[in-house]
Amino acid sequence: MFVRRRAAVLAATAVIGTAFAPAALADESPSASPSPSTSPATPAGLYGSTDPTYDGVWRQSLALLAQHTVGVRPAAKAVDWLTGQQCANGGFAAYRADLATKCDAKTQVDTNSTAAALQALTALDSDDAVTGAAVKWLKSAQNKDGGWGYLPGGASDTNSTSIVIGALEAADTDTRDLRSKDDRTPYDALRGLSVPCDEDGGGAFAFQPDKKGKLAANADATAAGVLGALGEGLVTEPEDDGKSSAKAPKAAECAGGDSPTPKQAAANGAEYLAGAVAETGHLESALAGADDQPDYGNTADTVVALAAAGRTADAGKPLAWLEKNSGPWAAQSGPAAYAQLIFAAHATGTDPRDFGGADLVKQLGATGPASKASGSSDPSAGANAKDGKDNSAEDSEDDGGVSVWWIVGVGLVGGIGIGFLLSGRNKKQQRP
């Protein structure tokens, strides 16, 4: 999850004030916040040109996973950049500028960056030593309640728990029986974050309980929670090749009371999301000062969640809204945003190369090193590809105290996201 959500957080002051990272809060309109600052020297192989300090691993992971999803083989240098970010303990920080310096206790390794990287590297069949170490680290960071927080030891939140579930499932780890020291599973943690049916916003997920232990419905967390409860990752396969318009049966009321099963929790969350986008086709931003502004990133996450829950018809309106309106946002936000839109298109069986007239695959490719279509026999693809920024699509077609890190971290989950991500964030509890 994603996570959520702007494609980059530029500075700690910007994070505290207005902007958050990828899936977390790419919900403001392009004019609602300052443009991202440009990194003095973008590392070779990295997608995007903005400062990677707070979202380098996140945006790289989403970009690589999105390319793999549409049959494009990422450049070897791009994959190497991501694997090079891994610490010896298996975890990933948001970004490591100096790889010559080993990770230590001061390195802010987090669950969201690690989970996103694991999903991408697993899809790309990376070395088992790399993915296995990431799995081991994520297991070690599981809280007693069965869930995960953004940083090891931090309180569990829906977004972090969900994106870790998706990553571990992608790596063939059975999360249904992954038990903490207190014999709790990740789904026990999610159940504890699902708003009871008899309360306001019942059936939705909260990000975390408030100081009084109350759960407030949050659409971003709900999109992540639906995927987590279903054991799904950032990429959801379309049902019936995307041609089915059947609407999942609507429950007469929120099911499961205050102790829903994972399946009930997912269905309840999907029902909440369907209602949240039914009128306008999009979610509203929860950012202070961004009243009545659409939330692009989390709307894309909602499309994925609805599709995963079998609510294909309900995903149609927000998908159409994104096709019509998301272009300027994605162009400003960068690779993670393009990836989120590709995930939404893929989940609904929509062609990402003709998304409201835009070629999302080409646009994503233009933000990083040249790539090749999957299955290309050209051994020089990737590592020896030219460094041009606007050629990846052409190539593929031709070949067939609260620390500032916590505040930053809460913006990196994932909505994109997921996120999904995925977004453990400095957020306001939101209702549609």
Can you give a write-up of this model?
This protein has 432 residues and is mainly α. 39% of the residues lie in helices and 3% in strands. The chain has a two-stranded antiparallel sheet. A two-stranded antiparallel ribbon has the order 2-3. Strands 4-5 form a two-stranded antiparallel ribbon. The two termini are 19 Å apart. The model is unreliable at 1-39, 241-248 and 375-432 (pLDDT under 50). Residues 60-171 form the Prenyltransferase alpha-alpha toroid domain. InterPro entries: Prenyltrans, Terpenoid_cyclase/PrenylTrfase. This is Prenyltransferase alpha-alpha toroid domain-containing protein.
Topology:
Elements: H1 12-17, H2 56-69, E1 72-73, H3 76-84, E2 92-93, E3 109-110, H4 111-123, H5 128-140, H6 158-170, H7 186-192, H8 219-229, H9 262-277, E4 283-284, E5 294-295, H10 296-308, H11 312-325, H12 327-333, H13 335-347, H14 360-365, E6 372-373, H15 392-398, H16 404-409
Antiparallel strand pairs: 1-6, 2-3, 4-5
Helix pairs in contact: 2-4, 2-13, 4-5, 4-6, 6-8, 8-9, 8-10, 9-10, 10-11, 10-13, 12-13
Largest sheet: 2 strands, antiparallel
Top-tier CATH class: Mainly Alpha
Mean pLDDT: 81
Query: Distance between termini?
Result: 19 Å
Shape: globular
How many domains, as an integer? Answer: 1
Task: Name its key features.
single chain, 432 residues, mainly alpha, Glycosyltransferase, two-stranded antiparallel ribbon, two-stranded antiparallel sheet, 6 strands, globular, disordered C terminus, signal
